[in-house]
Amino acid sequence: MSQALPYPSAPAQSESRSVLAIPAFRKLWKSMAFSSFGDWLGLLASTALAQELAGGNYRKANFAIAGVFIVRLLPAVLLGPLAGVIADRFDRRRLMIICDVLRFGFYLSIPLIHNYIWLYTATVIVEAVTLFWSPAKEASVPNLVPKEKLESANQMTLLASYGSAPFAAIFFTFLALIAKTFTSSPNPRFNSPADLALYIDAISFLYTAWIVFQLQSIPRGAASKSAVNDNLGKSLYNGFKFVSQSKVVSGLILGMLGAFFAAGAVFGLARTFAGDLNAGDSAYGILFAAVFAGIGLGAWLGPKIFGQFSRRRIFGVSLTVSSMFLAILALCTNIVLAILMTIFVGAFAGLSLVTGQTLLGMEVDDDVRGRTFAFVQSLIRISLILVLAIAPIIAASIGRHEFTIDNVHFHYSGAEFTLFGAGLIGLVVGIFSYKRMKDRPNVSFFSDIVAAFRGELGGITGHSHKGIFIAFEGGEGSGKSTQVELLRKYLTEIDETVLVTREPGGTLLGKELRQILLDPETGAISPRAEALLYAADRANHVYAVIQPALGRGEIVITDRYLDSSIAYQGAGRVLQPNEVARISRWATENLTPNLTFILDLPAEVGLSRLESIDRLEQEPLAFHERVRREFLNLANVDPERYFVVDATQEVGAIAKQIQERVSTIAQLKINGEKSKK
Questions:
Q1: What total of structural domains would you count in the chain?
Q2: Boundary (domain end) residue, out of 201, 229, 257
Q3: How far is CA 138 from the centre of its chain?
Q4: What is the rounded CA–CA span in Å between residue 567 and residue 573?
Q5: How much is the pLDDT for 647?
């Protein structure tokens, strides 16, 4: 239970096979998988034993289960920093072996001693020992695989940690079923699935100790003399200081806490909830497996299914939907329906968690990212302790109740009431998080859903890349080319690598198409053909020029991009702007600028500045006014990505506004002195 990361998606099969082909890592991965399996099985067995020792007392069972969760999480809050230092200062291989042998002994002792005091005592010790095993394992992985395979190795590590949970739950369910065959045994210890699970759990740690013993390639610790990591209070203070300054990050963290709040309520009450449905230990195991199976499905399939939607939007929505299913779960009186609802709770919580992790990496500046993640981890642990402690206590205080409506009897206990309350709280948190992080404030999520079904949403999230992509848009004579050159000069002076390009004409093919599209001698072109020609130029432009430069980490500035097609060939030619947008998004593989400047100018003023007139510029004034309105409509829909500048201002004033806005992009590392230039 010391883990706090979301259930990971599996890496690509070829990548996983590649990293598992390394003998040393493959052995370590086996030890991780068995250790995690034992950890999850131990959690299930400990909570089941706590309820068993309650002797059928509902309140006592809830308090006992809450105690198990608290003692498993508390060491992670108190000993986390110390464990990391120990892992760096001692022989990691010996440390892992000692930890596994200790976990074997203490898990073996729990069913033998068989009382509350030792259950809690041994659980605290085991969890504390695990805190030393985990950083030793994490620190060893980079020494066993090449640097280029480290990301794949980390994915497999997470898969071993969390992918074993459903198997542990299924195995516990199996033990619950076969335990019934031993009812005639003279020793009642063999009649308990919890005791059987603890014996097997102990053996699993002995096996992992043997695997690690064979790994001679694990190096000693680095013996770092650096200071001990920030304590919990300092991490909370530093994290809160940064988080409070960002609406997006604060909404994100609040939402992630809401997701863990919902999941914690399910974990804390699953055992008594299964008992309320008269389903027993086997149903408890299935419910536990259903949560993690759902989280896995959500983390794996969710980003693929909802890839068209903005991550900020889907985060809050998925949390809200997960909470709705949690409230429905609380009302279920049938175990099969309850399992189905549990899967849905886990699936949308998994989508929320994986989206939240992605957003944290994207939204948080690099120089405060570590403190922010430490802040999140600390809050997650504290929130889990609170909900796992409070939820069973609330359930126990409420007790069992019966309601009769038109001679129909309904039986609900404190677990159901508490789950329903947790669902309502999660619902409020999800809605608040959605509103706080909402991008494109003038477009409803329902509109996005309709657009997605029509194939018109495109891919709001867009590509991820190392560089920064900036586009300049606007009507004729708005001064785009001048501002592009001034921005290039500014960025070059502060030692940024900049690539300036344009559409059409950024490639050899683009130059040929530019001649066709803008030469007045070309004459009339079908509006649809014109849109397709611009899309063809854009596809080649992205493929040959923009994407390679972004991949190198450069800043790419383009004079016109897809918004020009939406405005000119869409609104200007009176085609459907959404159709034109869909064509361009397909052509560019959804590559979206980080920032788009729209230089706004009355059409008649811009046209009066022109010295020569091309095929588009000679269109009537009404055409150019429609173009201008469409640019402003685009900016109104997504004000975070678009920046509208009044192009009637003096050139220097416009340039200063543009430079200040570019300097706020998180990825652009411009220090204070360079900004003054």
A1: 3
A2: 229
A3: 21
A4: 9
A5: 92
Q: Do the strands 408-412 and 401-405 form a parallel or antiparallel pair, or are they unpaired?
A: antiparallel
Report the alpha-carbon distance of residue 584 to residue 566 in Å, rounded: 9
Model confidence pLDDT, tens digit, residues 542-554: 999 998 998 888 8
CATH code, 221: 1.20.1250.20
Which residue in 105, 110, 112 sits closest to 45, CA to CA?
110
pLDDT at 230 over 50: no
Residue 345 domain-assigned (yes or no): yes
What is the distance between the alpha carbons of residues 275 and 93, in angstroms, rounded to a whole number? Answer: 42
> Are residues 2 and 106 located together in one domain of the fold?
yes
Does 422 share its domain with 464? Answer: no
pLDDT of residue 667: 47
Same domain, 214 and 280: no
Structural domain range at position 398: 247-364+387-438
Q: What letter does residue 193 receive in the DSSP assignment?
A: H
CB under 8 A, 24+ apart: contacts of 652-659:
654/479, 654/483, 654/599, 655/483, 655/486, 655/487, 655/490, 658/483, 658/486, 658/487, 658/597, 659/487, 659/490
* pLDDT for res 673: 37
Q: If we measure between CA atoms, which residue out of 459, 497, 433 comes closest to residue 581?
A: 459
Q: Is residue 237 part of a domain?
A: no
The whole model's pTM is what? 0.59
Please indicate, yes or no, whether residues 218 and 317 belong to a single structural domain of this protein: no
Residue 351 lies in a domain: yes
Pairwise CA distance, residues 159 & 28, whole Å: 13
- Return the minimum-mean-pLDDT range out of 360-364, 487-491, 556-560, 614-618: 360-364
501 against 407, higher pLDDT: 501
At residue 287's C-alpha, the angle toward residues 284 and 288, to 5°, is 85
CB atoms within 10 A of CB 86: 17
- Could you give the CA distance from residue 449 to residue 213 in angstroms, rounded to a whole number? 54
- Distance separating alpha carbons of residues 156 and 10, to the nearest angstrom: 7
Q: Can you tell me which residue has the tokens 């076969």?
A: 178
- pLDDT band at 658; cut points 50, 70, 90: very high
Query: How many angstroms separate the CA atoms of 659 and 653, rounded?
Result: 10
CA distance 522 to 467: 37
Alpha-carbon torsion (21, 26, 27, 28), positive or negative: positive
Identify whether residues 483 and 611 lie together within a single domain: yes
- Give the pLDDT score at 7: 36
Confidence (pLDDT) at 458: 53
Query: Does residue 401 belong to any structural domain of this protein?
Result: yes
Please give the pLDDT value at position 620.
Answer: 86
**DSSP percent split of the chain into helix, strand, coil, nearest 5:** 70, 5, 25
Residue 645: its pLDDT value, please? 93
| Mean pLDDT score across all residues of the chain | 76
Whole-number Å distance between alpha carbons of 291 and 350: 9
8-state DSSP, 279: -
Whether 26 shows a pLDDT value over 70: the answer reads yes
Give the C-alpha separation, 367 to 383, whole Å: 26
